[in-house]
Amino acid sequence: MKKYIYLLAANLLLLGTVSCTEELTQVPLSQGTEENFYATPGDFVQARNAVYSVAFHGTGTYGYANRVLNLSETRSDNLLALTTASRDWEGINSFYTSISSNTYVKEAYVSNFNAIYKANQLLEKIAEKGDVIFTNPADKATMAAEARFLRAFCYFDLIRWFGRVPLIDRTMTAQEASKIGRSPVADIYNLIISDLQLAIPDLTASTTDAAYVGRVTKYGAKAVLGLVYMTRSSPTYGIDGAMLGLNEWDKAYQQLNDIKTSGSFVFGTDYASIFKLEGVANKENVLTIPYTQSLASSIGGNFMVEVGYEPYFASVGIGSNQGSLEPRPISTGFLNMFAANDNRKTVGIATSYTVASGTYKGSYTLPVFKKYIDAARYGTGGREDWGVDFMVIRYTDVLMLMAECTLHGGGGTQADVDGIVNQVRTRAGVPANASNITLDQLFDERRKEFFSEGTRWFDLIRSGNALTIMNAWKAAEDTGNKIRTIDKNSLLYPIPLSEMLAVPGLYDQNLGYD
């Protein structure tokens, strides 16, 4: 299997993981240690790799891929994830108001601020020593661009979950950081957009260089910037979140169209291959998080376990204790959207499966997601050692986001929208009969295309109909009346309790949470 350079940084003692409070308060390393470390180009490469590692892979066993499956997919109408055994995801799909101590909520906050701290430190060291250390100015510029992208990526992730968060764009002492409250989202967007705009010119445009697999290219950054503009343009719902109600669909369209016109990506004809091919061979990959199995450095992934189910894993020859003991069932309404012969359902959903022997021997008809489960890429290190890459943004997503912008008047034509949807339907093996597609129909098509990829919650919010759709889902699916009524405050997650208690009175809690 391939071995990605940035993942090796996870074992660096100097840049190792520390607690949430330590990172958020921006306690710097000792001056002597910093000076001894940032002395060669190789040191800077390792520091950059560490930023990637934490931004993409998190600070523990959960990374970005796990996060969006837990906080986006599981929150959405794609599942009916009501736990009976107090799993970590309890309360996410039930919209509890008491989830400020939830493991997944805390991870989203902690990992992002860990990566932001490392990005801030790297940018400061590049500015301080880069002209001396780097013999090639382009290497210095590219490294700074990657650090800026990763800082922007993490801040964008934070505001989509939490709304206002502390804006920390430099390393700080604990005393300095203890005085910084939650900053306006508009101010955080200023940093995000500035970082991305500064980064894009100095990022590689190559999508064929294996050395950049798992690192951001110019087009990955443009895709994120396009999504930033789209999120800023989305309805506010009357909350202090990432949605500002701006009309920047044209700006988003421009960034996404640059990806299309680059000619670097291909809309493939086989849906299944999208999730099998990796690296430069997969022309759907616009921004990807790589994982590699069976290496001593333990850099495999486990995100497919989040929405998987133990009996299904056993049915494809993977041993016990590798999947989730309790399933997150797919909602009936979502299953009913698919035509019987839709390739997306065939590839991504197991509706029946049989275990020949062992603990789970028997036949099962509980539908579960299987899109990313590939026994051939299951490693020797157990349930956290899968070599399956996770696509943060793929080319089909870029095209369908462009169609969304078009329907908001951002560019392109109705014929373009219909053409994109018909491409998607043709690959799915269903009639390509799209005509005068509306926004609601486009979001329905996105739902069938991107399920179990972590996009659904964000799509719901951009649609402007999140509350109507989710409460209709509750009425149809929640026969036991275990799910709270979903209101506008449910569209944000709570600030983790550990952060609220770190400096009492510094932060206000998001409305609606205990």
Structure, explained:
The structure is a single chain. This protein is mainly alpha-helical and 514 residues long. Among the domains are: 37-182, Alpha Horseshoe (Serine Threonine Protein Phosphatase 5, Tetratricopeptide repeat), CATH 1.25.40.390; 303-388, no CATH class. 44% of the residues lie in helices and 4% in strands. The protein contains 19 helices and six strands. A hairpin with a 6-residue loop joins strand 3 and strand 4 (362-364). The termini are far apart.
Defining traits:
two-stranded antiparallel ribbon; Serine Threonine Protein Phosphatase 5, Tetratricopeptide repeat; SusD-like_N; SusD_RagB_dom; signal; 514 residues; 6 strands; mainly alpha; RagB/SusD family nutrient uptake outer membrane protein
CATH fold label of the domain at 37-182: Serine Threonine Protein Phosphatase 5, Tetratricopeptide repeat
Walk across the major sheet and give the strand order: 1-6
C-alpha-based Rg, rounded: 22 Å
> How many β-strands, per DSSP?
6
Number of helices: 19
Indicate the CATH class of the domain at 37-182. Answer: Mainly Alpha
**Structural class by secondary-structure content:** mainly alpha
Sum up the overall morphology in one term: globular
Alpha-carbon distance between the termini?
47 Å
Strand content: under 5%
What helical percentage do the residues reach? 40-55%
CATH structural architecture of the domain at 37-182: Alpha Horseshoe
Low-confidence stretches: 1-32
Average pLDDT score: 91
